[in-house]
Amino acid sequence: xxxxxxxxxxxxxxPGGGLRGVRLWYVLLALAGLxxxxxxxxELQHGLAATGMRDVVxxxxxxxxxxxxxxxxxxxxxxxxxxxxxxxxxLKPLARLGVLSAAACVTVAAIMILPDLGRPDxxxxxxxxxxxxxxxxxxxxxISVYFTFSVVDLVVLQRHESEPSRLRKAIRxxxxxxxxxxxxxxSVTAWIFGLQIARTWWNTALMAPLFVVSAILSGTGLVxxxxxxxxxxxxxxxxxxxxxxxxxxxxxxxIVDLFFVGCEYVTVLWGNVPADRSALDLVLPxxxxxxxxxxxxxxxxxxxxxxxxAPRLRRVPGSxxxxxxxxxxxxxxxxxxxxxxxxxxxxxxxxxxxxxxxxNPATSSFELVGRYSxxxxxxxxxxxxxxxxxxxxxxxYRRLFTPSAAGHPDLxxxxxxxxxxxxxxxxxGATSPSPASDEQ
Amino acid sequence: xxxxxxxxxxxxxxxxDTNRCVGCWTCAVACKEINNEPLGFWWNRILxxxxxxSTTAAPPAxxxxxxxxxxxxxxxxxxxxVACQHCNDAPCVKVCPVQATFxxxxxxxxxDYERCIGCRYCMAACPYGVRIxxxxxxxxxxxxxxxxxxxxxxxxxRLVFTAERPKGVVxxxxxxxxxxxxxxxxxxxxxxxxxxxxxxxxxxxxxEVSLLVNEGGAVQLxxxxxxxPNVYYVPVRRRVARET
Lengths: 440, 244
Hints:
heterodimer; A: mainly alpha; Formate dehydrogenase/DMSO reductase fold; two-stranded antiparallel ribbon; 15 helices; 2 strands; B: Alpha-Beta Plaits
């Protein structure tokens, strides 16, 4: 935006574009949020019949987007903790941004469960009659812990900004606790699927490691995108060494992620067990869900890797942002594939299959192979929740990264534009258009 | 039928003789009637299979029912009625976050309609695909509702059947808990025109189900999963040496 006016800005003198831009952004977010609320009210009236889910594919967009957001939340703790535990000083500037995104992602993920429930009015039963053998209960527990942890970490990091010396030890302790907590969060979410003996597509010990690495991948990607956005619109300074670290993190996580997925494929292909093969055949080229294969391996795999690693491509402006976005999209495709194929792959090969639970005179009440396509209700609610994430991030960012927090109370915090970081990190960012052009 | 009066809780077991089943769907329709199942709901369904075929291993002969496996003249056809298997180690009971689905001492797995939060984790966990969710308002064919038409609660007061389906909860076969608690047989057993279904107490060594399970070679579905169902199937007995 108008950020390229690099001189020390005077708020009153700035053109109104920045502020108007933020207002427009808030209006868009509010509209999307409103759409989500309207869709949810519609769903509450009509029941989950308003969704595309039925008895054969009984989990859909809410659950795979939930798993996706849980994964996205990894970035923050990874940034903040790696900076401390492994002493990567270049990642420290991303700590607060990352932890903020972690808290936002976990909040959105937790809310996402509500529209998936048939009886959200009975949600308190989870606390009144918890069943401790249920991975869902473990997940609710670890999500609560992770959320609390993120908020505490954010508060401590924020305090540390204003009085650096006092909280060093607390930050270190939090960093060491943060990593295992994050690993546990993604493992438990993986176990919701991975422990189920009924679905061979899910029932693999690799599920937890796969979730952890894909969470690191998408979470780091998200922090990258947020930092780039903050640099463009919020005056955040993203230094070249920090970019290099992000590049490396995403590339390594992506390679390990593809390696794990590849291990699954080899195991299924070599073993050739019919129930496993029928699931994989849906994913492999030629199958009904082959687009998830291409999204994971090409669009979210080879292409971002090329933009991260190939010497010529990585110098293309915007390569890091593009690679981060594609990698995240690939992880989302993986979540879709995991959940939907798990259900579509038939539990029984024999006709008529399973009842679907609703009556349509034009088609059978049974399905041998499941079908799923989300309805406008699901898309709208998900869009609303994405908007909620955007709103939390925007408000949170503007609150945390105010000039006053950086020790410049004179600038006030009405300015959404580029100003604060200029004074906070003179060398890093806003020396006019250069950061945008050299290696974005 | 042994009831609790016989001293101790009976171990309720159903045995289905696949030698006898003709795939007429009487049990499935009777089940729909007695349990007031709305349109599109099938607690019980009859799979078209080849004799003694694993439900996951062989490809289907057709997408439609009643199509035999094989090529003429070597055709094979058998039926496998599948409803809730009432597992002793039930995955649905393990995953339910609120203990809404539970196993009674007699081996019957039931759902508390008043506690279920509708998360459908049980449907993801069930290897037999027998659970039905109330997606929207229940629809019925013209002519209305027959069947129990009233609520039924277990001894400890849990609502395990109601004719007026609450939107947003999961349901499934109850072993006709309303009938078996008064010493009657489940409705599918009563209505099977060929007598392919037997219901009884596995703890009673003289009962017909005990004989079929212990000596008749009755087997469980997916024994490899360790769910230990209380529904057993008597395999199809082949004639020896069809050729030569």
